[in-house]
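Case study 2.
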Amino acid sequence: MFHRILLKLSGESLMGNQGYGIDPQRLNDYADQICQLAKSGVQIGIVIGGGNIFRGLSGAQKGFDRVRGDQMGMLATVINSLALSSALEAKGQKVRVLTAVRMEPVGEYYSKQLAIRLINEGNVVIMAGGTGNPYFTTDTASSLRAIEIEADVMLKGTRVDGIYTADPEKDPTATKFESISYDEILARHLRIMDLTAITMCMENKMPIYVFDMDTIGNLMRVINGEQIGTLVHP
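Prediction:
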């Protein structure tokens, strides 16, 4: 049983079956699972991507200045964070949004000390705005925040049920790992996260668990020790 977790949610998964934006049903399903976990006593920090609204790298490929594009991506993560916080509040869960760049009263400015204090007070703490710097992904932001808030594990919720030898959506012969080391991920060039995020977790011995967040109930199954995803370990 984990005492404190960092949950990384995919912005693209928030689209549900839509082509863009936030699917209310998917948002509600996520909020239900997070509330259930919080009520069980697990302390929760969350980082959400912004790919359902805007990706800085894809914007740069379309002609946007890379720094401006990444800043737009940071704002997309804030939008998603506010949506999730609203859904959690509607269910009676204490929640706070912290942002990596100042934008009060949208959210309070992030600091490790504030995040840990709020978590200890029973809040789900959503950390928005990435790292606050361009050229860093939300995977790197989630690795950084997991280390900063002294989480026991980083749970990476995706639409795929773990790490495979190849992309299972493109290669039907791909096989799933129950566990894998950081070194093997790097050696096999498996792009479950960007290299900066993987290296940061490896150097700080932060375990990562990759699982399918879109299946209702999976978040509690992971916490209860069911082998439904892939553990990345030293």
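The two ends are 19 Å apart (CA to CA).
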